[in-house]
């Protein structure tokens, strides 16, 4: 496997606060690699060191290929139209705007709108399109779906999958375990500036167990259950609620918070 990014002994501190502590990881060509961590774990700082926007205090970063960076929100002038931003980025990249790219990213539908008038989802799509203008080999995406509704996330996930199918390498930051599980090939988990785990989703599941949390709201209040077999547990619970005549008003299933996985990882326990 060819290497797209190699990070060796990366350290970074702000004053006395060491935020990245000797990070070592490799991103291979064509894969989606996620940096997963809670707020403040060091994800953005790591990405910015890779992007060259922040200077590392120690270590080496090797990049093999052309890199595209997805902008953060509110990075463009408020009054610039989406199509003007595209033209500007194309000019900087000494190329022409690619109508196919604009079509795929769904930019045409809001091409004449000013940046300030765009929804969060439209801004993200525009940022992704701008990152793609120079036809990079490697894409860096910092929390690409933050603030998006379910539909917006599904659309963006699909676009990210299409980019992978085209052979792009992607590194993304996220604090959403479920997103990372469905999208990424490998994960690096950052805990307080240290990489606590690097490996595939399957390897992570082996390590922390594949536990799901189920919350059921009914007249009797909210009850919570943990299981490794959602289908079986849900069927049993639904039958039980029905038999007891308890009307269900909401059901929520999740993969457990990152914090739960971190705690179990550091304790070496399951769940
Ligand atoms: N310019 C800065 N000056 C001082 N401290 C900073 C600066 N930028 C980030 N930090 C600190 O570095 C740590 C890591 O921040 P970073 O933004 O990399 O985390 P993150 O994992 O991306 O968090 P989030 O999910 O909230 O974006 C935090 O404690 C943060 O307060």
From TrEMBL:
Keyword Cell membrane appears in the UniProt entry: no
Gene3D superfamilies per the UniProt record, alphabetical:
P-loop containing nucleotide triphosphate hydrolases (3.40.50.300)
What InterPro entries would the database entry show? AAA+_ATPase, ABC_transporter-like_ATP-bd, ABC_transporter_ATP-binding, P-loop_NTPase
| Pfam families linked | ABC_tran
Where do the ABC transporter domain residues begin and end? 5-217
Name the SMART domains on file.
Answer: AAA (SM00382)
For molecular function, the Gene Ontology terms on record are: ATP binding; ATP hydrolysis activity
Q: What keywords is this UniProt entry annotated with?
A: ATP-binding, Nucleotide-binding, Transport
What is the similarity comment for this entry?
Belongs to the ABC transporter superfamily.
UniProt name for this protein: ATP-binding cassette domain-containing protein
């Amino acid at each position: 496997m060819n290497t797209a990014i190699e990070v060796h002994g990366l350290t970074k501190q702000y004053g006395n606060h060491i935020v990245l502590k000797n990070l070592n990881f490799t991103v291979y060509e064509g894969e989606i690699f996620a940096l997963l961590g809670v707020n403040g774990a060091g994800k953005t700082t790591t990405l910015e060191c890779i992007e060259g926007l922040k200077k590392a205090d120690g270590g080496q970063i090797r990049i093999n290929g052309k890199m595209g960076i997805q902008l953060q929100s509110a990075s463009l002038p408020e009054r610039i139209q989406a199509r003007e931003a595209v033209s500007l980025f194309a000019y900087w990249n000494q190329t022409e705007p690619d109508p196919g790219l604009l079509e795929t990213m769904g930019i045409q539908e809001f091409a004449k709108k000013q940046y300030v008038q765009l929804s969060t989802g439209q801004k993200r799509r525009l940022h992704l399109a701008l990152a793609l203008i120079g036809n990079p080999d490697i894409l860096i995406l910092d929390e690409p779906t933050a603030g998006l509704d379910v539909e917006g996330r599904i659309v963006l996930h699909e676009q990210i999958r299409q980019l992978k199918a085209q052979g792009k390498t992607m590194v993304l930051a996220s604090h959403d375990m479920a997103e990372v599980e469905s999208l990424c090939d490998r994960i690096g988990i950052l805990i307080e500036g240290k990489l606590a785990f690097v490996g595939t989703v399957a390897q992570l599941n082996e390590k922390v167990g594949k536990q799901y949390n189920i919350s059921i709201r009914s007249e009797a209040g909210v009850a919570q259950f943990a299981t490794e077999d959602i289908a079986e547990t849900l069927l049993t619970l639904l039958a039980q609620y029905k038999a007891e005549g308890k009307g269900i008003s909401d059901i929520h299933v999740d993969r457990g918070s990152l914090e739960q996985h971190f705690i179990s990882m550091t304790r070496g326990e399951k769940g």
